[in-house]
Design goal:
By secondary structure, the protein is α/β, with parallel strands linked by helices. Helices cover 35% and strands 21% of the residues. Strand 3 and strand 4 form a beta hairpin. Helix 1 runs antiparallel to helix 2. The radius of gyration is 22 Å and the shape is elongated.
C-alpha cells in the first residue's frame, strides 16, 4: 500500500520524538488535566452517547451521516479519556518550591535577554502543559535544559536553527503552588 500510510523511516536511536519525556507537571497543570478529564467523562461523553443513540434509532446506519460523525467523535472522546486517565497516573506533581529559588528549576518563570538586547519571558513546565502562546516551554526542550540550575546573570547557550544563541538570565520567579 502506497501513499498516506507510508512514512519515512527514522532511526529510533536518533529520532528526537522517541526521547523519553519527563513525567513532571505543576499542580495547576495537573488540576487542569483533571478538569478536562472530568468534563469529557461527565458532560461530553454522555451527550455524544445520547446523540449516537438518537441517530441509531433513525434506522439505516450505513447512510446516516449524523450517526457516523457522532460515533467517530465519541470514539475520539473515549480515547482521550483513556489517555488522560493513564497519563495522570504516570505524572509526578511538583507542588512545592525548590530549596534554592535563586536558580532555575522546574516551574520557574524566567526572563531572558538575548545578544540583541531583546527580552523574552518563559516558564519551564511539563510536557503536558506546553503553551507556545504564553511561552511555556517543556522541561525537556533544549532551552530549558540549558537554563536548569543557572542563577541570575548567568549565560546559557542554546543551539538554534540559525546558529547558537546566548541568553543572559535577568530574572527568576516562582509561583507559590499553595495559592
Amino acid at each position: 500500500m502506497k501513499g498516506r500510510n507510508m512514512t519515512r523511516w527514522r532511526d529510533p536511536a536518533k529520532d528526537p520524538r522517541q526521547a523519553p519525556k519527563s513525567d513532571l507537571i505543576t499542580a495547576e497543570g495537573a488540576e487542569r488535566l483533571r478538569g478536562i478529564l472530568d468534563h469529557l467523562s461527565r458532560v461530553k461523553r454522555p451527550a455524544l452517547s445520547a446523540k449516537v443513540g438518537e441517530a441509531a434509532a433513525l434506522g439505516d446506519r450505513s447512510e446516516n451521516a449524523d450517526y457516523t460523525y457522532n460515533k467517530k467523535e465519541l470514539n475520539r472522546v473515549i480515547a482521550r479519556i483513556r489517555y488522560l486517565t493513564k497519563r495522570l497516573d504516570e505524572l509526578t506533581v511538583v507542588d512545592h518550591l525548590p530549596a534554592d529559588t535563586g536558580k532555575v528549576y522546574f516551574g520557574a518563570f524566567v526572563t531572558l535577554e538575548d545578544e540583541k538586547g531583546e527580552e523574552m519571558a518563559i516558564r519551564i513546565v511539563g510536557h503536558d502543559e506546553i503553551e507556545p502562546a504564553n511561552r511555556w516551554i517543556s522541561v525537556d526542550s533544549p532551552l530549558a535544559k540549558a537554563l536548569l540550575g543557572k542563577a541570575r546573570d548567568d549565560e546559557a547557550t542554546v543551539a538554534a536553527p540559525g546558529g547558537e544563541t546566548t541568553y543572559v538570565i535577568t530574572e527568576i520567579a516562582y509561583r507559590d503552588p499553595g495559592k
